[in-house]
């Protein structure tokens, strides 16, 4: 096998996975468009089929980021290779968190403008969700803009603090009843959704979860490649134990 | 077929388009980065082999 095929070719299993993801995305879209009309909001409620999966998943990826940051801090003086992998995964999960939270914010604002007549309000859920987005944007900025040996450690500590906002944001619509609607699932007696709308919810959730796992894996693979290139470039100047601190972005 | 005549219907279309643009835009950016990093890795291997 030549160099090009080893370094550039996309693995067959990843291509098949991507094809499956697009198929599930298409089913999710079809289900979302053909679900029955909602009594109060009409067609507008179909935003829910994209807003809900992105918001729920934007609460999952930050925990991956937090676990990876903890593993990085644990391994950085014990196992340089594992620390590098954990750091690459932390970066990938933070980027995907920002992506999913951006979609959650954008779809929420478009829905809010049409349903409530306003783009934004300083409601408990919206405010804590904006804070979540800002925390992970700041995490990415710290990684990109700072230099020095402690950069990876600072960003790992920031990741752990940022994760504290997740349960607060998740519970905000249960703790404080303000502008944002009450939870649709697990929100008490009045919560729930018509059973004819459930397939659209679950297909959309499955589709965007599959896509999220794909972009997370691809971003991780890219970062691992960059680490290898960076290690090779810096190899004569640095000791193996210092490598994880010096080359991570 | 969803009509495009009212604010709520327009915003529904905008919301779906915003999702596709953000998600598939990021996917396209990753594909470019994958290609670039592959080239970098290949160049590194070539250097190692010649050195």
Report what the structure shows.
- The complex is a heterodimer of chains A (249) and B (51).
- Chain A has one domain (14-181, 196-234).
- Chain A has 249 residues and is mainly alpha-helical.
- Chain A is built from 10 helices and no strands.
- Chain B is mostly helical and 51 residues long.
- Chain B has one helix spanning 7-50.
- Chain B is rod-shaped.
- At the A-B interface, helix 1, helix 3, helix 5 and helix 9 of A face helix 1 of B.
Ordered list of secondary-structure elements with their pairings:
The complex is a heterodimer of chains A (249) and B (51).
Chain A: H1 3-8, H2 12-34, H3 48-57, H4 61-75, H5 80-115, H6 124-145, H7 151-162, H8 165-175, H9 198-234, H10 243-247
Helix pairs in contact in A: 2-9, 3-5, 3-9, 4-5, 4-7, 5-6, 5-9, 6-7, 6-8
Chain B: H1 7-50
The sequence of SSEs of chain A as H and E is: HHHHHHHHHH
Oligomer: heterodimer
Distance between the termini of chain A: 31 Å
Helix content of chain A: over 70%
Number of helices of chain B: 1
Regions with little confidence, pLDDT below 50 for 5+ residues of chain A: 237-244
What's the structural domain tally of chain A? Answer: 1
The rough form of chain B would be described as: rod-shaped
Rounded to the nearest angstrom, the radius of gyration of chain B is 21 Å
Could you tell me the number of beta strands of chain A?
0
Strand content of chain A: under 5%
Summed up:
The complex is a heterodimer of chains A (249) and B (51). With 249 residues, chain A is mostly helical.
Can you tag this structure with a few keywords?
A: 249 residues, mainly alpha, 10 helices, B: 51 residues
């Amino acid at each position: 096998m030549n160099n090009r095929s080893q370094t550039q070719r996309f693995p067959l299993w990843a291509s098949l996975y991507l094809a499956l993801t697009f198929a599930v995305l298409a089913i999710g879209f079809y289900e979302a468009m053909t679900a029955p009309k909602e009594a109060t909001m009409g067609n507008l409620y179909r935003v829910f089929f994209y807003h809900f999966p992105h918001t729920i998943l934007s609460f999952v990826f930050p925990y991956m980021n937090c676990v990876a940051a903890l593993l990085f801090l644990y391994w950085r003086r014990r196992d340089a290779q594992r620390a590098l992998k954990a750091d690459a995964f932390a970066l990938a999960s933070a980027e995907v968190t920002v992506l999913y939270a951006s979609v959650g914010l954008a779809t929420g604002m478009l829905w809010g403008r049409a349903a409530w007549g306003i783009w934004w309000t300083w409601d408990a859920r919206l405010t804590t969700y904006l804070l979540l987005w800002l925390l992970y944007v700041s995490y990415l900025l710290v990684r990109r803009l700072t230099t020095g040996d402690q950069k990876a450690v600072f960003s790992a500590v920031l990741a752990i603090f940022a994760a504290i906002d997740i349960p607060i944001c998740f519970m905000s619509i249960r703790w404080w009843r303000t502008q944002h609607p009450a939870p649709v699932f697990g929100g008490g007696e009045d919560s729930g959704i018509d059973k004819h709308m459930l397939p659209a919810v679950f297909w959309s959730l499955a589709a965007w979860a599959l896509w999220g796992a794909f972009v997370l894996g691809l971003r991780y693979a890219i970062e691992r490649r960059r680490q290898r290139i960076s290690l090779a470039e810096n190899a004569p100047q640095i000791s193996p134990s210092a490598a994880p601190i010096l080359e991570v972005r | 077929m969803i009509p495009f005549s009212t604010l709520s219907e327009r915003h529904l279309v905008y919301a779906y388009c915003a999702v596709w643009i953000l998600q598939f835009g990021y996917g396209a950016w990753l594909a470019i980065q994958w290609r670039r990093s592959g080239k970098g890795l290949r160049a590194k291997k070539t250097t190692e082999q010649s050195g």
